[in-house]
Write a structure and sequence with these properties.
Helix content: 40-55%
Oligomer: single chain
Number of helices: 9
Strand content: 5-15%
Order of helices and strands: HHHHEEEEHHEEHEHEH
Distance between the termini: 54 Å
Number of strands: 8
Shape: globular
Structural class: alpha/beta
Radius of gyration: 19 Å
Length: 265
């Protein structure tokens, strides 16, 4: 079976996964002929699926498909990066293609991933390209916890099909209206909680996305200032040598972090 799956064409894997997920929903549709439209449909089905098990065949084909998709996007290894300052890196790109020990997911308080089909948030991307086991593991954690994840804390899971080893999930503050001191303290808690958990788990490197500055409306510049300050304070106080990547997606955020890091060399 593994030989057959490994030698399947990527198009055939994608069609199998779509048909399986549609059959779970007792739904039939005309499959799009365009590959990009098929990818959007598959992602939407992944996103909307509740946490539950799937057949071994599905899991093997899903894993082969997602690993190939990530390889085609291109994987960036932390060892290929040059630090901006000692142990601190700035990298612009898709965090789902970053090979390091752990990446940080800015999640919501349910901590089950984004259920909105093809949404542009990082939570959606990480769950999509990790595969369905990530949502299952998150559901197990949350069921055992018995309450929603508090703002500023962190949990760690396996990364499954992502190039990294682990995903650290943290709920950032949501800013409605005026930015408050509490918002700033909660954001600092997010970075500190992730670092503490990463070091406890033995991770040697971690990549932070721009927590809360997207869908949660935290101001970008202030968010970056808190991120850099909190990471530096943590490393100074704990003497930790964990390598930290500030991952950005937009040119605007890259310029903010580049200025902050160069000013503090």
């Amino acid at each position: 079976m593994n030989f057959v799956i490994n030698n399947m064409e990527q198009n055939d894997r994608r069609k199998y996964l779509i048909e399986y997920l549609l059959s779970e929903r007792r739904q039939t549709i005309d499959l799009p002929t365009n590959a990009n439209e098929q990818k959007r449909l598959l992602r939407a089905l992944f996103n909307a699926r509740m946490p539950k098990t799937a057949s071994n065949e599905f899991m093997e084909i899903q894993d082969a498909y997602l690993k190939e998709e990530i390889l085609r996007k291109g994987v960036t290894d932390i060892d290929e990066l040059t630090p901006a300052v000692t142990d601190l890196y700035l990298w612009q790109g898709d965090i789902t293609t970053l090979k390091c020990d752990g990446i940080v997911n800015a999640c919501n308080s349910q901590m089950l991933g984004c259920f909105c089909p093809n949404h542009g948030c990082i939570d959606n991307a990480i769950h999509t390209f990790s595969g369905i086991r990530l949502r299952q593991e998150c559901a197990e954690i949350m069921n055992a916890q018995g309450y929603e994840e508090p703002t500023g804390q962190a949990k760690i899971t396996n990364a499954y099909n992502l190039p990294c080893k682990y995903v650290l999930h943290t709920v950032g503050p949501i800013v409605y209206g005026r930015l408050t001191q509490k918002h700033e303290e909660q954001l600092s808690d997010c970075y500190r909680s992730c670092l503490t958990l990463a070091v406890k788990k033995g991770l040697r490197s971690i990549a932070f996305c721009c927590i809360s500055t997207g869908e949660f409306h935290f101001p970008n510049e202030r968010g970056a200032e808190i991120a850099v300050r909190t990471v530096k304070e943590y490393k100074r106080k704990t003497k930790s040598r964990i390598k930290v990547i500030f991952n950005v997606f937009k040119e605007y955020d890259y310029a903010i972090y580049a200025k902050l890091l160069s000013a503090n060399k």
